[in-house]
Amino acid sequence: MIDYDSEEYDFDEDTRSEKRSSLRSIVARDWPYVLMLTLAIFGVAYTNFARQAMTGYWIVLAPVFGLICVAARWRQLESSRSQVKLIVTQALHWAAVVFAMYLVFVADVKQMMSDFASSLMVLTVLALGTFTAGIHVGAWRICLIGIVLGLGVPAIAWFEERTLLILLLTFVLFAAIAVFVVLEHRRRTKDPF
């Protein structure tokens, strides 16, 4: 005699285990993007709280984002020639972004802006660089992080209330995570293997 209840129970356990492993695989695969988003939100929040220039932070963050962009596309490239091309194009792209950030600190430009304004300008350049790098490597998640960074600029400039900014940043973070999870779930249901 077949025990239908135990089969249903086993199916439910398999489904729960599959969901847990699916979440683990999402985190394991998307950790660079989560790291990028976390570093970006930390920088935006710290700039708002401290009201001081974070220019060094943004300039150091640019090459880190460049490495993540290379890593995001690396697994999909089959030939060493295309991998070298990816490295060269991303190195040139991020070198241009860092150079544009450096231009903000040229003596003549620096005299026209406050430290806070120059920090926002550097953040804007980083946001644009991140978005265009995401387009270049074909990674929508990197584009999304560029958009989040770009939204951070007006958030810092316009919101004086720290509580409101924290709520906004928390909402953006949860929205981005929800987008990751929903798109991954849709992809898995369309292609179960």
Question: How does this model look, in words?
Answer:
This protein has 193 residues and is mainly alpha-helical. It has one domain. Helix content is 88%, strand content 0%. It has helices spanning 4-50, 55-74, 80-104, 107-112, 115-137, 140-158, 162-190.
Overall pLDDT, averaged?
A: 76
Amount of beta strand: under 5%
- Classify the helix fraction into a percent range: over 70%
Radius of gyration: 21 Å
**Number of folding domains?**
1
Number of strands: 0
Outline the fold blueprint.
Blueprint (H helix, E strand, L loop, with lengths): L3 H47 L4 H20 L5 H25 L2 H6 L2 H23 L2 H19 L3 H29 L3
Helix pairs in contact: 1-2, 1-6, 1-7, 2-3, 2-5, 3-5, 5-6, 6-7
Q: Which features does this protein show?
A:
193 residues, mainly alpha, 7 helices, 0% strand
Provide a quick synopsis of the model.
The protein has 193 residues and is an all-alpha fold.
